[in-house]
Design a protein that fits this description.
about 140 residues; alpha+beta; Thiol Ester Dehydrase, Chain A; five-stranded antiparallel sheet; two-stranded antiparallel ribbon; 3 helices; elongated
């Protein structure tokens, strides 16, 4: 399993008039965690794209448990537990500063050749990086 954590403060613009984070922002938090995880292992998303590979999102799942509130400090846990082949699944959990689970979900990404926009298998460089960090 490859695991990474990122902490963020809830920002005012992410909330409604009741001070509750709008449901759409959790998907953004998933992306923040996923991007941070890839950067930490030395393969940021922009490097993958410069290598000619696009990573479109093909599915998102999010189960909400409790609301994040204005002033919360959230912890985004990103997990890859399966080596990618034709798709990459990143599971996410978001906690508040009290360590209460706010939501959990997953994002499934595909791989496209940037020039042809045709589906491809996961690049070997990406598989190697994930495999190297699976049991750390």
């Amino acid at each position: 399993m490859m695991r990474s954590e990122l902490e963020l403060d809830v920002r005012y613009y992410e909330t409604d008039q009741m001070g509750i984070v709008h449901h759409s922002n959790y998907i953004r938090y998933f992306e923040c965690g996923r991007s941070d995880m890839m950067a930490k292992v030395g393969l940021p998303i922009d490097a993958i794209e410069k290598a000619g590979v696009m990573l479109p999102i093909v599915a998102v799942e999010c189960k909400y448990r409790r609301p994040a509130l204005m002033g919360d400090r959230i912890r985004i846990v990103s997990i890859i537990d399966t080596l990618p082949t034709a798709k990459l699944v990143v599971n996410s959990e978001i906690y508040n500063q009290k360590d209460e689970l706010l939501c959990k979900g997953s994002v499934t990404l595909g791989f496209l050749d940037a020039a042809t926009r045709r589906p491809i298998r996961c690049p070997k460089d990406l598989v190697a990086v994930i495999e190297k960090h699976m049991n750390l």
